[in-house]
Amino acid sequence: MNNSWHIASREFRERIGSRSYVLFSIFGPLVLLGFVYLLFLAGDVPEQRWKVLISDKAGIMENKIFTSGDKAVTYSFVDDYVDHDEFADAKKFQEFDALLEINEKILSNKIAFVFYREEPSTSMQMRVRYHCERRLEEVIAQELYDMPVQKYRKIKTPIGFSFRDVYDPYGMAADLKGWAGFFFGALIFVFIFLFGMTILRSVVREKSNRIVEVLLASVSPNQLMTGKIIGIGMSAFLQFTIWITIVSSGLYLMRETVFPDVRDASNVEMMITEDDASQQEQFFGSMEYNEFVDLVYERMQFSNTLGFFFVFFIAGYLFYGAFFAAIGSTMGSESDGQQFVIPIILLLCFALYSGYYALHYPDAPLSKWLHYLPFTSPVVVMVKLAQGYEPGHAYELYVALLILLAGAFAMLGIAGRLYKNGILQFGHRLQLRHLIKWLRRS
Amino acid sequence: MDTILDIRNISKSFFRKAALTDVSITVKKGEIYGVMGPNGAGKTTLIRIINRIIEPDQGSVRFDGDIMTDSDLSKIGYLPEERGLYRSMTVYNHAMFLARLRGLNKKDAEAKINDWFDAFDIQDWRKKRIEELSKGMAQKIQFICTVLHEPNLLILDEPFSGFDPVNVELIKKELIHMRSKGKTIILSTHNMKSVEEICDRAVLINESRKITEGSITELQDARKLGLYAVRFRGNMIAFVNALWTGFEVERKEVLGDDRFLMHLKMRSDRQFDDLLRVLIGQVSIEAAWEVKPSMQDVFIGLVSPVE
């Protein structure tokens, strides 16, 4: 183990000492941040004009709402309960863009549902939230507490507005969160491929310059392979950490400066002091964020996702890294064996497609299989994690992780055998029969 | 002399092709042991088995009296024939890396590196990258990395290839010095002159089998042809008359100024003393000796097919 550590630390120092590593560590996340910034800016939805139907059977709002001349949204009331399915399909409701459901419990549970036909922009969500909340605050202050509304606003509990697609109210279809999970999964595979190829090149270089025979006189082939995979993995992990640090710092800075949190009640109160249409227009106009901003800052559970992201990255890297090491060790020359890299690349592509499939068909039986299959689980689990496991099914995540870890150790064992028998074979042209023979040899 | 390495009945084949067949050798402590053989004879396979890089199909290797284990590897230094270095590493880092792999702690490794860099006068190279070194310089580093941990057994596969004559002598001198300190050296080489010069004993392997093993003198004696050489000054007729019928002239070489070099074979049971006795007083003998085959002759004689 000590020797594996010496091999690993040499590999690690060689990687982090290379110029390309340093450049990729610093400029990679900066470029990514640049893309994120452009996505936040360029992805803005056009200014929306909404007609909102307020279903207020209990008459809580008393058919009153104050828009202060805001022309972007108009409200109509109906003194009856409107089911969201009916709203989705009934001809008489087609003129409305959204249904705001006010039930009799809202004064106590402070939750309102908005069913929309087309996803509202952040600005539109803010407008609806702002207008309705101000009216409801009046009602709550007057009826529940009998105090001036200005006083109530200082002690209020904010009302939660849940925006839902009327055609998919339970969020069954692939949503942005799933895509974010897919992005994380894809990132894992990009890094696995990049650092897997680094393992392969490193093994081939050691073979071709014959240093490997000097090393093998001191360390076993398994120690050499393990040390190499760990050393390169450590450099990948460090690079990942640098990326995460730079990207999260950048996102934090953007949040503090360019894209402040518009849902923070204090921000709204500070910026709109009175019912002034022009002031509202100016404020909501400036808050015209697109859904990616909302996704990144509000809907992703980064702490949870990042934790599993690292765990699945490590396990996935060990699994595929062993493959790359085995192929590198069995190649007869630097140019040989490229054809055996192609199946690994295809496997990686298949894994990416699996993530895409799971994104669209999360409950399909095939998605379940792909979720547990070690070849595909790192990306599929990331998608599933972002979409959210059903209550009581979180164990599936740990089962997938255990299977992946077991697969990684099995793969290290197989690769170790190929490595041991292939590393001192030179000058041949790698063929499948070589791999089979070396696998069968003890 | 105690045995440091006892190899018994080793066999190894690759894809049904025999690389070694029932080979047994013993290497004694404090000797320089030559491993000779033509290309593809099985020398490198034997050396790799000793270094535990590959496992034999049959047979055993005993190191210092016990069955060899991985822990014995730290007592062995190995310089393979096709050796490499990490081109992007500095000379010092490379030496330190290999020293640590061979089991030295950092402090000891540092001290040994300094000693060897002094001995080879290469302290200036410490921070040079390997890729900046010439081939000869890199080979010096490879040699130093092999002996850094002061192994009891040193295994060198073609250690002189690529070295200029000055460095060959430097390495030979160092090997003889190490032998004087009680180290054992196994030398695999095609350079028969080196075997003759510095090896105490040797083995010859051909087509996966051991052909012969013994001291250099024994190996030469086994192939000698009963040939003697006499260098003298005087009259050729007198020389021939003195020999009469007891000796047979094989070759005559005129050196000039009435000086000759004659190669002779004994007839019947004549001895070297008899030769000297009949010649003294007839010619002026400058030198006389038994002609032994060179190791080159021994090698060729043993591996060439019988015609």
Topology diagram in text:
The complex is a heterodimer of chains A (442) and B (307).
Chain A (H helix, E strand, L loop, with lengths): L1 H16 L1 H24 L7 E7 L16 E6 L5 H6 L8 E5 L3 H4 L1 E6 L5 H24 L3 H7 L4 E6 L10 H33 L2 H6 L4 H37 L7 H7 L5 H10 L4 H9 L2 H29 L7 H23 L4 H8 L4 H11 L7 H28 L9 H9 L2
Chain B lengths: L2 E12 L2 E12 L3 E5 L6 H8 L7 E6 L2 E2 L8 E4 L11 H11 L4 H14 L15 H13 L5 E5 L7 H16 L3 E5 L3 H7 L2 E6 L2 E7 H7 L4 E7 L2 H8 L3 E10 L2 E8 L5 H8 L4 E8 L3 H9 L4
Parallel strand pairs in B: 3-8, 3-9, 6-7, 7-8
Antiparallel strand pairs in B: 1-2, 1-4, 4-5, 9-10, 11-13, 11-14, 12-13
Provide a descriptive summary of the structure in words.
The complex is a heterodimer of chains A (442) and B (307). With 442 residues, chain A is α/β, with parallel strands linked by helices. Chain A is built from 18 helices and five strands. Chain A has helices at residues 2-17, 19-42, 84-89, 106-109, 122-145, 149-155, 176-208, 211-216, 221-257, 265-271, 277-286, 291-299, 302-330, 338-360, 365-372, 377-387, 395-422, 432-440, and strands spanning 50-56, 73-78, 98-102, 111-116, 160-165. The two termini of chain A are 21 Å apart. With 307 residues, chain B is α/β, with parallel strands linked by helices. Chain B folds into two domains: 3-85 and 141-222, P-loop containing nucleotide triphosphate hydrolases (Rossmann fold, 3-Layer(aba) Sandwich), CATH 3.40.50; 227-291, Alpha-Beta Plaits (2-Layer Sandwich), CATH 3.30.70.260. Chain B is built from ten helices and 14 strands. In chain B, helix 5 links the parallel strand 7 (153-157) and strand 8 (184-188). Chains A and B meet through helix 1 and helix 8 of A and strand 6 and helix 2 of B.
